[in-house]
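Risk register update: the risk that structure generation would not scale has been downgraded. Supporting records follow, first protein first.
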Amino acid sequence: MASSTIQLSDWIGLYAALLSTALALVGAVRWLLAGPKLAVTVFNPLETSMGGNSSFLCIVTNSGSTPTVVQSLDVSFRTARWFWGKEIGKAEFNEGSNWKPSVKLVPVENKVNTFREEPNVIQPGEEIRAPARAVQEYDPHTHWIRVAATPRNCRWKFVGWAAPSRMNLSDSSTNIEGGSNV
């Protein structure tokens, strides 16, 4: 005849089931969060002092816990941030372009003006700074810049945006606090 009371072996079995489920969930979360992580920051040309309305700055930081190499940077210029924004220009920097984010040039000892390519491994907390010139149709007051960085051996793209700027650097009648100089 079956007893309606819970015995010690039932409590042990329940505890083991809960513990193994919790450990499986922790392992699954760790697996999902493992791998390279990049933080992409993009500055509108009016937010930098690199060349007027056409040069912008992109900074890719390794925010993960393992060293990684940036395989490609995809830059697009858009009329709006979301999917309905028309693309007015784009550039891809990868193994087939003049500038490769995955390699860095290192001077060769005892050879003047001679460089060799080495993998551009970004350690956790380090960054790549990539200044670039925008396409001719780009207007820093109305267009967005989207930069997607893809680490090597990873299918994820890490995206950063530069919003249109409302700054007008040629207007000297307004000081930093927003008051008038008159």
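Supporting record for the second protein:
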Amino acid sequence: MGTWETDTYNLAICPCGKGHVQQVVETPDNPWSRMSETYELDCADCAKAWEISSYDGTLTDRRSKKEAAQASVASQAASAAVGAYLNSLLPNWPFPSFKTKGAEFEYLLAMGLYKGTVGQYRYLRRAQSLLEIADVHPGSSIVPELVKKLGDPNQYESLVAEAKTAKQTAAAKSEAIKYIHLPKRK
């Protein structure tokens, strides 16, 4: 069992100015182990407000990171609402009658209602109906006609607009995350 030598270097003053950002270097006393570098915040206030990467010491503002995560969740929920609305209309869609499962697969693929392979489709079809397998998403070629015939175009456009706004907000919040990159120790 070996021993380790630990050295601590002050790299920079912390964001509030009361403490330091430190690099901790642990070096083994044997040639077969590697040295370890980690970073720490030596300031109680900044440790609450900032996260520090143990890899390169980059500081990340916790509040702006949390806001970006919340905006991302809201964006995913808005996109899911569009998909749920479209899929709620699908059971009333007049599917043509098919002679083979291969013909079903080709139809679903052409309409953008399935993304797998024919083998996967045949396997799923053993236990599920065509409607259980079909999945409408906003990029499906069937969407304009589906909404026009069976849905409410105003409701659909409203859901799409909400999803677009939520996506833009999430992107803006992600870009607004505050980072502080530390200088490297010489």
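The longest strand covers residues 4-13. On this basis the risk owner (M.S.) recommends closing the item.
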